[in-house]
Design goal:
Blueprint (H helix, E strand, L loop, with lengths): L24 H8 L11 H7 L6 E2 L14 H4 L15 H4 L8 E6 L5 E4 H4 L6 E8 L4 E11 H8 L7 E6 L19 E5 H5 L4 E6 L2 E2 L9 E3 L12 E7 L6 H5 L23 E4 L5 E3 L7 H4 L15
Parallel strand pairs: 1-4, 2-11, 5-12
Antiparallel strand pairs: 2-3, 4-5, 5-8, 6-7, 6-11, 8-9, 8-10, 12-13
The structure holds ligand MTE.
Length: about 325
């Protein structure tokens, strides 16, 4: 996140992308092949080596981009925010140190059936699908990515939240030996994100375990990360180790640090500027072109109703 500089939404020219490979969405869908037939356009050797090992179906109910090109895999997996490994976008090498197997996940708090489960067991309990989602970072860049994973609500159904559960708190691992930035004690580690229970049950809220037909790489949040495409990217917490249902809303990681800039709700809205830059446009990291940002990042039809009764309107979009 941009904490020091006062950039406008236009990014500096040295951050502009010169992507040579543009993958058309339909070509990618065809080439990834939902039943595993890969040919043509992608790096076939890489696919053969790292192809996603579990069966997944295709869910294109939320695919709202018919003309937009998918961001290339190389860009989406090499330009990342993962503060545990540093404050630059180039954290891929450092993130390789994270060991993601075994990976224990606890799902508890105000639930009837708390579970503590290894990722390999959890993934067999859910039904996996591929969805193409926009990701709009609060820093005014965006991606279009094919994720593999499962709806967050299917995880919650496994533990049966009690009626007193109002919020879902998610936390990333804490391991300063592996993730050097976690030695910086002025950050409120571990990275924490929170959704309301209604947001968490909304079908758009997704847990990603794969990307571009492959296992999620560490820099994108392996082995599992949240994807909530109607909110700014910082809500999409990576490498989650715990999910906890609670009755009171705790502060999120960024809310602790800069509440006026990166608040709890963080719903994408082109009309509500970040205090230091406009949110009206975004740079598509795939093509380098600027696009108009849309309310709820284009997903209003599925999520706008969640906010009808929220009183603190001013902060809904930050
Ligand atoms: N999760 C953790 N644990 N640590 C982080 O620093 N950065 C967030 C989010 N999830 C972050 C995180 C931000 S600011 C963004 S924009 C997205 O991850 C970026 O996801 P990507 O690297 O897969 O594009």
């Amino acid at each position: 996140m941009l904490l020091k500089s006062s950039k406008k939404w236009q990014l500096h020219s040295n951050e502009l992308t010169s992507e040579k490979i543009y993958l058309n969405r339909r070509e990618v869908l065809k080439n990834l092949g939902f039943l595993g037939i890969a040919s043509g356009f992608l790096d076939i050797r890489a696919l053969a080596k790292e192809k996603y090992p579990y069966h997944y179906s295709n869910n294109n109910n939320y695919d709202i981009d018919f003309d937009r090109l998918l961001t290339s895999e190389s860009k989406a997996t090499s330009y990342n925010n993962f503060y545990e490994f540093g404050s630059t976008k180039n954290i891929k090498r450092k993130a390789e140190k994270l060991s993601t197997s075994p990976w224990n996940i606890n799902i508890g708090g105000l639930v009837d059936k708390e579970i503590s489960i290894d990722f390999d067991d959890l993934i067999r309990k859910v039904s996996l699908e591929e969805r193409i989602y926009r990701l709009r970072c609060v820093e005014a860049w965006s991606l279009l990515v094919p994720w593999i994973g499962f709806p967050l609500n299917s995880l919650l159904k496994l533990v049966v939240p009690k009626s007193s559960a109002k919020y879902l708190v998610m936390k990333t691992f804490f391991d300063p030996k592996t993730a050097p930035f976690q030695k910086q004690s002025w950050y409120p580690w571990p990275y924490t994100e929170v959704l309301t229970i209604d947001e968490a049950f909304n079908d758009l809220a997704f847990i990603a375990t794969g990307i571009y037909g492959k296992i999620l790489p560490n820099q994108n949040g392996a082995p599992l990360r949240l994807v909530v495409p109607w909110k700014y990217g910082f809500k999409s917490i990576k490498s989650i180790v715990s999910f906890s249902l609670v009755s009171e809303r705790p502060k999120t990681f960024w809310e602790e640090i800069v509440p006026k800039e990166y608040g709890f709700w963080a719903n994408v809205n082109p009309l509500v500027d970040h205090p230091r830059w406009s949110q009206s446009k975004e740079k598509d990291l795939g093509t380098g072109a600027y696009r108009d940002t849309e309310i709820f990042n284009g997903y209003a039809q599925w999520v706008a109703h969640l906010y009808k009764d929220v009183k603190n309107e001013e902060n809904l979009y930050r």
